[in-house]
Structures are given as C-alpha cells and as structure tokens.
Amino acid sequence: MTIIGAEAVSSANRTARKARTLEQIAIPLLFAGILLPMIGSVYLALFEPQPGADSATTALIVLIEAAPPLLLAWAMLGLTKVLVEYEAGRYLSLEASASLKRVGQGGLLALLLNVIVVPPLVALLRGEPVFAALNPHIFDLCVLIFASTTLTVGHVLEDAAKQLKFENDQIV
Amino acid sequence: MTEAAMAPLDRAQKLAGGAAIFAVVAGVLIILGAAADQVAMPAVVALRSQEVTPDWRGALTLLNVVGSFLVLALPSFMLAGALFELSQVLDEYGKGQFFTLKASVGIRKAAESALWAMAFKVVASPTIYNWIAQTDDIRGVVWHLEAFDLGLIAFAAFVAVLGRVLEAAARIKEENDEIV
Which of A28, A70, A120, B10 is the most exposed place for a label (fewest CB within 10 A)? Predict the structure, then answer.
C-alpha cells in the first residue's frame, strides 16, 4: 500500500474511533434524556397525583410510553460492536453487518411498539376507545419505512459478508 | 464458486433489488399521502372559514394557508427524499456492488435527510407554522420534542456516522483499485 493509501486507512479508522467515542458519550445521555423525565413523571403520578386521577394507572401509562424510546436506545448499544469492527478496518465483516442488522431490528421493533402497541394500550388504561387510538401519523409511517429500509441494508451487507467469508475460507 | 456460496449473495442481491423498488414506491406514496392528508385536506378545511376573493388578497390568503400546511408536511417530504437516497443504495447492492463510494455516500445522505426531517419535525416546522399562522407579534421558538424523537435523532445520527465511515473506507478501496 502506498503512503497516501495508508494515510487514508488511518483517516477512516480515526473517523470510526471518533464515532465510537461520540457514541459512548451520547448513549448514556440518550438514556438519561429518556429516563430522567420518566422518573419525574412517575414520581408526580405516585406522590403528587392530579385530583381524581388513579396514581397507579398514570404511573403505568408513563412506564408503557417510555418503553419504545428505551428499546430504541438499547438497540443503539449494538452500534458499538459495528464501530469497533470498523475501527479495526473490518468494514465488511460478518460481525459488523450482523450487529448493524440487529440495530435495525431493534429500531424497527421500537417503532412498531410506538405506533401500533402503545397507543391502544394507553387508551385501554385511560378507558378511551382502543381502535380510535390506532391512528398513526403519516410521519410515523415514514420513519417506519425508513427503519425497515435501513434494516434491509443491514441484511444485504450481512449476506455479502457471508459470501466474502466463504470466499476467503476457500482461498485459505 | 459453489452453489452454497452463491445462495446468500443471490438472495442479498434479490432482496436489495426488491427493496429498492419498494423504497421508491413508498417514497412516492408518502409524498402523495402527505400532500393529500397534511396539505390539501387541512387547507380546504381552513379555506372554508376564510373568504378567498379573486384578487391579490385572495391569492395571498390561499398562499398563506397552503404554505403554512406545506411547512408542517415538510418532514414527511424530507423522509421521502431519504427513501429515494436509500433506494439508490439498494440499487447498487442489487447490482452486486456492495462497497462503492456511491452506496456509502447514499447511506450518509439518507441519514442526513432523516436528521433534517427530525430537526424540522421537532423545531423548524412548528416554529415557522407558528410565525405564519399567528396574528399577534409574539413569535418565539416552538419545540415538540418527545422521548422517542430523541431516540430517532440518535438513530439517524449514528446511521449518518456509519455512512461517513463507510464512505472513507470506500474511498480507500477506490484508491487501491486505481493503483492496482
């Protein structure tokens, strides 16, 4: 490899390292951004409830509504593995592609929960019509399609990585 | 190469080809759906309560109403744009070109479009709508940030970062290919 090529490799690895450092700072902040308001809302629901409100039900609703963002944040933890692989220069490794696919799956599951499962459940707990709550906003559908397409990218890269591994094994 | 080895790659290419078409169709449907559901229908309802006269004043009223709803629909249009970018990435994968600059740049651009869409959904669209629709002089910044939006922003940001890393790596591969 030429000196220019080696510099480019180290630049790509540096980008991956920076991204991993950023991720390690951002994910705890993301969890904090979701958990801290949730704890505050649960506290208010249990100890300073609105007049006439059922404190246990309100607290349960807060917990249910926090489940999809928490699942999304948890799915993002899988990105560390992807970035570790990239940092080592293994851009099309089986582990990186499989982790990317898992992140996509977690994200899609969180979106489905947020759009399809949580609104009827919350409506049921509030004693409101369940099917009326199932009225996804067009933006939610857009995000759902975006996440499923990202998941397809992960799937395709995983298959390509499997192919590459097989070819390498054949050569060895 | 044996048939066993060809199977995952064939499957990947077919999946990518199918998903590329799906992404384009979904993008077009999103644009049509958002135009009808978020712009045309609310604008018609709003215009029923306002008089649209066949003069400059009427034209400005129409522009104001349609424009304000268009601003609210912008995030959906941006995500449709992200889907078109992703369809190009998947099209590359469908041709068996998994590690090209075009595909990696496409991933980065799609994620950046999603980030812009989130920025518009959370702050820009509500603020601009508020400025257009409000008649008094109070024009502050309006935020609509939910916990799930925070997760989506992080998700899109990291896909963008991954795209950037893949882009850097694809550049190296191109350089190496040129040297060879």
Answer: A28
Report the percent of chain A where pLDDT is more than 70. Answer: 92
In chain B, what residues touch A89 (CB-CB under 8 Å)?
Answer: 169
Please state whether the predicted TM-score (pTM) of the whole model is above 0.80.
no
| CB neighbour class for B114 (10 Å; exposed up to 12, middle 13-18, buried from 19) | buried
CA dist., res. B40 & res. B6, Å (int): 49
The verdict on a CB contact (< 8 Å) between B168 and A146 is no
CA-nearest of A26, A121, A107, A103 to A69 is: A107
The ipTM estimated for the assembled molecules is 0.72
Nearest to A24 by CA among A71, A72, A84: A84
Q: Return the amino acid letter for B161.
A: V
**Which tokens hold the place of B108?**
């980065």
pLDDT at B100 over 60: yes
Q: Can you tell me which residue has the tokens 């609104």?
A: A119
Model confidence pLDDT, tens digit, residues A124-136? 988 888 887 777 7
pLDDT tens-digit map of B37-54: 888 888 887 777 766 677
* Cβ atoms within 10 Å of A28's Cβ, excluding its own: 10
Task: Please state, in angstroms and rounded to a whole number, the distance separating the CA atoms of residues B20 and A17.
Answer: 31
Q: How far apart are CA A141 and CA A137, in angstroms?
A: 7
Q: Which residues of B138-173 are buried (b: 16+ CB within 10 A; e: fewer)?
A: eeeebeeeebbbbbbbbbbbbbbbbbbbbbbbbbbb
